[in-house]
Amino acid sequence: MRARGRVAGFLLLAGLLPAGGCNLAPLAILFAPRQIQKAEVKLTSGRLLILAETARPDQENPVFLSALHDKLTEILRTNKVPSQIVPLTELARLRQDNPDFGRWSVARIGRELAAEEVLYIRIEQLVIRPTPDHPLIEPQVRLRMKLIAVHGDEREARRWPPKEEREGRLVEARRPPREASDATLLDSEAAAFGREVAFQVAMPFYDLNLEEKPPREP
């Protein structure tokens, strides 16, 4: 019945157009199936820890990291990914309470927070402004990510990406440069950049409509 309704609707619209095959092109586009890219891997329906760390301490940017985490959480929820995201406050508390936290494995951090999986994001390079006196803000990032199961044999813990991508899935992004005319722009650009990068990080984990481009922050 649903298929008949679609055909009837198509014929009705076609009848309203002047004769000529070329006029059916917009209808063909209208009725074309959506281009959907299936998720590469399904995330756990249990607790998921999003752990983002910078490889270089001097490039640590809490504004970028917080915006990345919050937007990534929002995207996964909007697209009905069932994971229960571990709040950043729990991770911060664990880090603060354990002086040897920096020596823990990713899997151990996940277990300590009762997570089933960890989405580990290692930021190899993060630049918001090249130098403090540089006239332009030029956000750019290079990161790699892996999905780690925290239980069982740690040698077999990696769930994604495929082993061919030994160092993890590579994500690179940048924003157009803008004049550093105001000191407050540094944080606002870092936050906007974090939200933009979140879309690229999230893409492998839900069914993606290829016709919808990730939004650009103003």
Q: Number of DSSP helices?
A: 6
Silhouette: globular
CATH class of the largest domain: Alpha Beta
**Which value, in Å, is the CA radius of gyration?**
22 Å
Task: Provide the β-strand percentage band.
Answer: 15-25%
Distance between the termini: 45 Å
Share of helical residues: 25-40%
- Determine the structural class based on helices, strands and strand pairing: alpha+beta
The largest β sheet comes out as:
6 strands, mixed
* CATH fold naming of the largest domain: Rossmann fold
Named CATH architecture of the largest domain: 3-Layer(aba) Sandwich
Structurally, the number of domains stands at 2
Low-confidence stretches are 1-16
Following the backbone from N to C, one meets helices and strands in this order, namely HHEEHEHHEEEEEEHE
Gist of the model:
The protein has 218 residues and is of the alpha+beta class. The protein is 33% helix and 22% strand. Helix 3 runs parallel beside helix 6.
Question: Can you give a write-up of this model?
Answer:
The protein has helices spanning 2-15, 25-31, 62-78, 88-97, 106-112, 185-202, and strands spanning 36-37, 47-54, 84-85, 117-127, 136-137, 140-149, 158-160, 169-174, 178-179, 208-209. Strands 2, 3, 4, 6, 7 and 8 form a 6-stranded mixed sheet that branches. Strands 1-10 form a two-stranded antiparallel ribbon. A two-stranded antiparallel ribbon has the order 5-9. The protein is globular. The protein has 2 domains: 2-32, no CATH class; 37-209, Rossmann fold, CATH 3.40.50. Strand 2, helix 3 and strand 3 form a beta-alpha-beta unit. It has 218 residues and is α+β, with helices and mostly antiparallel strands. Helix 3 (62-78) packs parallel to helix 6 (185-202).
